[in-house]
Specification:
The structure is a single chain. By secondary structure, this protein is of the alpha/beta class. It has a single domain, classed as Thiamin diphosphate (ThDP)-binding fold, Pyr/PP domains (Rossmann fold). It has four helices and three strands. A three-stranded parallel sheet has the order 2-1-3, sandwiched between helices. Strand 1, helix 2 and strand 2 form a beta-alpha-beta unit. The relative contact order is 0.17.
Length: 98
């Protein structure tokens, strides 16, 4: 198969697919929680927030803190999904490892 042979179906932006995916995971498992760094709208978390407000955590612009909260939730038996811009967490943590 060549690149030009690929047919696009049900075209959707990645963040829309992410929002739908985390919502579906939340419907299937009550231990799924979502955390974000002021990006709930950008990452299409509206349906998750509407149906599972007790499992949504708005941490604010504090990604490192968000990761610590997620670790604590994991210890408590939850399945956290942290949401922020893709390049921010790795870059921030690489700096701390150097």
């Amino acid at each position: 198969m060549e690149l030009h042979d690929i047919q696009v179906q049900n075209e959707k932006e990645t963040r829309g697919g992410f929002g739908e995916g985390i919502y579906e995971a939340g419907k299937r498992n009550p231990k799924v929680v979502a955390l974000t760094a002021d990006l709930a709208g950008s990452l299409k978390l509206g349906p998750f927030i509407k149906d599972f407000p007790e499992r949504f955590f708005q941490i604010g612009i504090a990604e490192a803190n968000m990761m610590g909260v997620a670790a604590g939730l994991t210890i408590g038996g939850y399945i956290p999904y942290t949401t922020t811009f893709a390049n921010l967490p790795p870059t921030r943590y690489w700096k701390t490892l150097a």
